[in-house]
Design brief:
The protein has about 350 residues and is an alpha+beta fold. Helices cover about 35% and strands about 20% of the residues. It contains ten helices and 17 strands. The strands form four sheets. The chain has an eight-stranded mixed β-sheet with strand order 2-1-3-4-6-7-8-9, sandwiched between helices.
Length: about 350
């Protein structure tokens, strides 16, 4: 269970200034040191996304799409509802030009009579566990790119054909007993906790987040781990022969959250490349980890477009100093023809790096 953090407003002493840093201030400070544009639109866009997660967290807590205090929720919140909430806010702020949502078949364009900004937003508005009604851990994933077309026109498909390394910012928000926001602008990963009274994200902890080394936990779907597929067999082999622990929160964002906290490996059999895999890979690599597909190709090196909206399994763990034989082994596994047990070989390589 994700426990509620200590209130930053109640801290006293020498570290109170850092502990009381709110999300907009931290973003502005990072933007001042490493500006990406001359308008500050990225700062305002991130602030708008964070503000909308306040409301989504309230709806998730009430378990209803309408908040009525004193009453039990009657209709479970859905990803389509969260997408509508984010679209209404971002389509009129003038900082973005198009939104790609995981639950939408087509990109969400903006009306012609509203200002069109300089950024593209890709998001999974609400990552939930379909197997349960009351969501113990769910979340929102987002990434931001600079648009490629002219800012005087509405967003186009051209703006979505970019490389994952072109992301200017990415993050995810976890809704549980405490609402936690992780984000990066390419200069480290930082986490913020939502104060329930002040309704502000406060920086906790004070320093940059790094994935711990030596993690021996495998995060993934139980259905995948018990399946007869090659990837499921590789997961079972890792758990039995290496005595790893297995954990499944039920959602991808929850598994990544615990991997960043505890270390280990996250295995996903299917994820949206633009809205999930790319932003989470950006965050994981900024936290010192690696993210790749079963062929050993890094997610951050892929060219993204709508035709490849679904990514095969990607693995993530704490990165170690590469050794010569490990580097050559990865190169051989990526270039040689894939045998029938290619998934097993890739999984074994990832586990051996963590235990080396």
């Amino acid at each position: 269970m994700i426990v509620s953090p200590l209130s930053p407003l109640g801290l006293r002493g020498a570290g109170v200034e850092k502990a009381a840093t709110v999300f907009p201030s931290h973003v502005r400070r990072t933007f001042t040191r490493h500006p990406t544009d001359y308008t500050g639109d990225l700062v305002r866009l991130l602030d708008d996304i964070a503000t909308q997660t306040h409301g989504i967290a309230a709806y998730v807590a009430e378990h209803d799409e309408t908040i009525a205090y004193g009453q039990v929720g009657r209709q479970a919140i859905t990803s389509a509802f969260a997408t509508r909430q984010l679209y209404r806010a971002l389509s009129h702020d003038g900082y973005s030009c198009v939104i790609l949502a995981r639950d939408s078949a087509e990109p969400l364009t903006f009306p012609e009579d509203v200002p069109h900004g300089s950024y593209v937003v890709c998001m999974s508005s609400l990552e939930v566990d379909p197997g349960v009604d009351l969501q113990p851990v769910c979340g929102t994933v987002f990434s931001i790119y600079k648009r490629l077309s002219s800012t005087s026109l509405p967003g186009r498909y051209l703006d979505l054909a970019q490389s994952a390394k072109d992301q200017v910012a990415a993050g995810f928000c976890v809704y549980a007993s405490a609402t936690t926001l992780f984000y990066t602008m390419g200069y480290g990963v930082y986490s913020f906790s939502l104060h329930p009274v002040a309704v502000q994200y406060f920086l906790q902890p004070n320093q940059r987040i790094m994935v711990p080394t030596g993690g021996a936990t495998l995060f993934g779907s139980r259905a995948l781990a018990t399946s007869e597929a090659s990837l499921g067999a590789a997961m079972s082999k890792c758990l039995t022969k290496r005595s790893w622990k297995f954990q499944d929160v039920g959602t991808l964002v929850g598994n990544v959250y615990y991997m960043i906290k505890l270390g280990g490996v996250v295995v996903v059999d299917k994820s949206d490349l633009l809205c999930e895999a790319a932003p989470l890979a950006f965050i994981i690599e900024q936290a010192g980890g690696v993210a790749c597909d079963l062929n050993g190709t890094k997610i951050m090196g892929k060219i993204l477009h709508l035709a490849m909206s679904t990514s095969p399994s990607f693995l993530a763990q704490r990165a170690h100093e590469p050794k010569k034989h490990q580097t050559s082994r990865l190169a051989r596994s990526a270039t040689r023809p894939r045998p029938s047990s290619a998934a097993t070989a890739s999984m074994s390589y990832q586990c051996s790096r963590n235990s080396a």
